[in-house]
Amino acid sequence: MKIFDTHCHIDDPAYTHIPDVIERARRSDVMSVMIAGVDAERSEKGIVLAEKYQNVYAAVGIHPHDAQTCSESILERLKSLACSHSKVKAWGEIGLDFNRMHSPQKDQEKWLARQLEVANSLNLPVIFHERDSEGRLYEILKTFKPSYNGVIHCFSGGSTDLKNFLGLGLYIGITGILTIKGRGAKLRKLVKDMPLDRIVIETDAPYLTPTPERNRHKLNEPAFVKTVLYKLSEITGIEPEPLSETIWENSCKLFNINPA
Fold first, then answer.
1. For the segment 77-87, what is each residue's pLDDT rounded down to a tens digit?
2. 138: helix, strand or coil
3. Is the distance from CB of 41 to CB of 23 less than 8 angstroms?
4. Do 10 and 221 contact (CB within 8 A), yes or no?
5. Tens digit of pLDDT for each residue in 58-77?
6. What is the pTM of this model?
7. Measured between alpha carbons, how far is 52 from 130 in angstroms, rounded to an integer?
8. What CA–CA distance (Å, rounded) separates 94 from 127?
9. H-type helices in the chain, by residue range?
């Protein structure tokens, strides 16, 4: 079995020994990992890790929380990183977050649009963050279609959101929320309406630890994405091995890679 954790943050300082994280992932059949960038410094750190470990990849980008600190010079720095490092396979995570509002809406929207332009110019798929944007992310993305490919990271919307994002040709990222009894109830219903060829799975490590690991571990990590796969198998009625093969193919197609 081959599993791809399509979104994690193992560049986070919370991880004190990355070789162990990578080895535990391998032992759990997690053969590839995408490290999502959140700012320039963390994007650079993700690239260093990607170049150190086989089948680990990186994305560069400015998270909506940090949009107010973004600038054209920072985007040029990220663009240079993407152009000079072959392990950079995506741009992100970028998007809108109107829940915590760490950056004003106008800044989030401005730098989302600019980052989409840069990603498009580099022909990189985009990792999108969306939380409580009330359809605004969809409205913005419609103006760029069909220039980009991408994934809605940690999908948490409703049926209308799902229909809209699928209509844009986007992939849907499913996290450990799927396994959580109360919080994941809506997602477990919606998963049944998702085309299998548009689903990818992810951890968002060190966050969103799935059940039952969340009862035993302080940090989420790529190894635990296997739990998401098994819950998805239970919901869809598809055996884990063929399901993992489909999702592996989806992930490789999304990021335009062919892991060794």
1. 999 999 999 99
2. helix
3. no
4. yes
5. 999 999 999 999 999 999 99
6. 0.96
7. 30
8. 6
9. 18-27, 40-52, 72-84, 105-122, 136-142, 159-167, 185-191, 225-236, 240-255
Residue type present at position 141: L
Phi, psi of 67 (to 5 degrees): -60, -35
User: Which range, of 148-152, 216-220, 235-239, 247-251, averages the lowest pLDDT?
Assistant: 148-152
**126-157 exposure pattern, b = at least 16 Cβ within 10 A, e = fewer:** bbbbbeebeebbbebbeebeeebbbbbbbbbb
Give the tokens for residue 35. Answer: 């490290």
CA separation for the pair 243, 165 (Å, rounded):
22
In whole angstroms, what is the distance from residue 50 CA to residue 82 CA?
12
Sheet strands side by side (includes 199-201): 3-8, 30-35, 56-60, 88-97, 126-131, 150-153, 171-174, 199-201
- CA 183 distance to own-chain centroid: 19
Report whether 109 contacts 96 (CB < 8 A): yes
Domains in the chain, please, with CATH?
Answer: 3-255 (3.20.20.140)
Residue 187, number of CB atoms within 10 A of its CB: 21
Question: Is the bond leading into 242 cis (omega within 30 degrees of zero)?
Answer: no
